[in-house]
Amino acid sequence: MDVVNTITALLSPFGYECSPFLIKWYNEIVNQRFQLSFEANTLAVSVISAPDMFEKAFLPFVQSSRDILAASGQDPLDECTRHCFQRIVQADLHCPGVECEVIFDFDTLPSGQPRCLVQSAGHVSGQARYYQRADVTEDEAGQIGWAKEKRIYGACAHSKYGGWFAFRGVIVLKGLQVPHLPRVPPADVLQTADERFRFLDLFNHHWQDGRFRDVPPTVIARYSQQQIDYFKTAPRERHQLLGLPAPRSKYDLSDSSSSDNDDEKEDDGSADGSTAAPRASKQGGVTAAHG
Ligand code: B12
Predict the structure, then answer these.
(1) Can you say how many angstroms the Cα of residue 236 is from the centroid of all Cα atoms in its chain?
(2) Which residues contact 218 (CB under 8 A, 6 or more apart)?
(3) How far is the centre of ligand 1, averaged over its atoms, from the C-alpha of 155 (Å)?
(4) Which of 96, 99, 112, 271 is buried most, with the most CB atoms less than 10 Å from its CB?
(5) 108: CA distance to ligand 1 center in Å?
(6) Whose CA is nearest to atom 5 of ligand 1?
(7) pLDDT tens digits along 222-236
(8) What pTM was computed for the model?
């Protein structure tokens, strides 16, 4: 598909990888409340950041946008993603009548729920297989000690990057219908019950140490140490790590009646990957820079 090649050509120099899918493939598997309201055969592209996005896009972006980042106080990684995706929105995709709509992984609906479940989108696009509790038999789950009622979050494994990647968003090509787009299944990189269990168990119970990322035996690229250190740092200390002044949060403006919890709120969100966990907001939504 020419248009997918054009989008790939614009994003790949920055460490992003693209994989096309049809809206109906996604809508067929998710609950109605998560469905996307575009025509069924509309072409969309799932975008992930590969491990080298940090060096190819993020660090150069921070260097060239220091003043803007210092003034905005926004999360640097979210700003970088917006900046890179802007290239697609502004590009001439040679598709008259087609309009791009970008849905970032951190975008939420007014209800607070994510606008798009990027793991399900990535799975149907063939980019990375989404492993869920149902991929481990109840027998195995019982042996491991997962209680029946315990919620086990699913996680995607990529054939080259294992868990060393993040979903950055979905680009919807509104007005472009491709009913016969060939469907490529995601590679099943966790072949044994033990691998599937370890991957999900580590993702759910030990995600801070990043071991889940190395479970797929096919991993060939990982985050650099600098990137690991960046994501290990609490979100509100990352500006300092980048040599940027600390962002002025709304709490700086509040008076001394701020509660003790205010500190916590500032820590919400983790740009990607390694340690600091993003938390669902009080409204049930997610904060920016979740990876
Ligand atoms: C909210 C959220 C959280 C919450 C809740 C987690 C959750 N999964 O619900 C919290 C704050 C706990 C969290 C934590 C983390 N998160 Co989080 N989180 C999200 C977020 C924003 C939304 C997830 C969500 O609400 N899902 C709703 C539930 C209902 O969806 P679901 O369980 O997948 O159910 C659907 C599927 O089952 C589907 N379905 C049904 N049948 C079938 C069949 C098939 C075959 C398929 C494919 C699908 C399918 O339909 C269901 C919906 O109807 C996503 C980004 C996004 N926009 O999707 C990141 C995301 C899942 N998080 C991610 C990560 C990495 C983390 C952390 C490691 C923190 C970090 N440092 O970034 C931790 C680790 C988790 C843990 N142990 O706590 C990554 C996971 C990457 C990956 N490899 O899969 C994501 C995708 C963000 C990203 N940008 O890459 N997270």
Answers:
(1) 20
(2) 159, 160, 162, 187, 189
(3) 7
(4) 271
(5) 13
(6) 280
(7) 999 999 999 999 988
(8) 0.90
